[in-house]
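Hi W., the iron/sulfur cluster complex you wanted:
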Amino acid sequence: MAENSSGSNSMFCFQCEQTARGTACTTSGVCGKTVSQSELQDRLTGELVALARIEDGHATEATWKIILEGLFTTITNVSFSDEAVELQIQKTRDEIAKLHPECTGTASCPNHEPLDMRTLWEGNEDIRSLKSLLLLGLRGMAAYAYHAYVLGLTDDKVNRFMIKALVALGDDLPAEELLALDMELGQVNLACMALLDKANTTTYGTPVPTKVSTFIEPGPFIVISGHDLKDLELLLKQTEGKGVQIYTHGEMLPAHAYPKLKAYPQLKGNFGTAWQSQQKEFADMPGAVLFTTNCLMPVKDSYKDRVFTTEVVSYPGLVHIDDNKDFTPVIEKALALGGYKTTKELTGINGGNVLTTGFGWGTVLSVADKVVDAVKAGQISHFFLVGGCDGARPGRNYYTDFVKQTPKDSIILTLACGKFRFNDLDLGDIGGLPRIMDMGQCNDAYSAIQVAIALANVFECGVNELPLTMVLSWYEQKAVVILLTLLSLGIKNIYLGPTLPAFVSPFVLDYLVKNFGLTPTSTPEADLAKILGK
Ligand code: SF4
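Structure:
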């Protein structure tokens, strides 16, 4: 069994939905995280708290980048490499020394010391729960802020809140204050998602509804996974005229809808289904794979030679493409593998071979009149937002069954990789509006919020009075911050599954149920009957 630097073979991590026994991973991560990786990620988090404590208004662009990268590194299925996390810890320590040169070490400045994360994991259960919401949500927001940053946009409000929240993790604060900070994080994340939406749409155009094939054409190809549109753009530029086709995977699917990305003829289609199937789907694939963000699973020997990482993603033994973004090794690997000899007819999990994406808020609101008329005419009775992360646990077919059982006069808005449970289904349309509308990646929850607010304005009511129900699936930390955003907007009666987060204590859950009507999913039949009042 792996050990950490102090010789212990135990760890503590409960940040994702697949955590062991539904309580915490304590001897190894279900995701593949080792004891030493867990210790290093905790140390990195503790160093980020120290950096936040000494920052005192002196942060530079380099400081913000280190904080974003550090938080992003600790998201589930991002980093598996001890070397990469050690490097990130060193960068953080160097930044502390740069911002605080008069401080020569821990003896002279207690703030210089990294926070020992065990004080959080081993502390009072409710304080731990509220601080975990803050830390894990912060990790999620950092991922969104990072994507906006690489496209040239930052928001001082977002950066400053990261400092405030990191400092709070080490402070002795009462539950009420921590709860207020959790809600404030939700609000700040709304601004962060708006920033990313602006970065994406000003750089690549407003998404347009686009049909994406699941078939893979003959010839060399690269599969690009994760959320980073900039990496996709760079890869598309570098593969022009090289005879290599590009296929999206997982959360990269919505990239097909951006006009400036879809203009590249070699951007062909989508490979496979959601992230948790990658070990099976990549096993005998004659193409190269590039991971730009999560979700990377432990890489099997059968395809290890063809997987590449970039940005904060890392895995021992894989070639990492650094900030110079020279994708030559990926392209050469694709050419050497040669691709399929004939068209490979892959399908979604329900057997469909066309996925439609590109229903961002700009598109949906451009047909708002049609939507409103259909509601007033009784053609649309209900809207469901069925979205969030997919995952490996049994029970996630809830979302497939739920969507299949929704009334024929309802619209399903979706986003993030949870949609791979049903995005190959053809549920028809209502007056020309498709019944399933894919709004994009997880960060495009911003789109869903914009649409909900616009509908509430048209119908002169609050979002909670709309015939709209949110049925969310969660897996990792970006879903945590999106949930906080929805709660901070006062959105009630959200259904959450497939299981509740282990880091939500009974007291905090009771608060969320009483104040927001947060409801654990049960069965599609029972939940639909309750939602529709039958
Ligand atoms: Fe366990 Fe999830 Fe933490 Fe991995 S990220 S160690 S699966 S709780």
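Residues 13-16, 18-19, 25, 29-31, 33, 76 surround iron/sulfur cluster (CB under 6 Å).

W.
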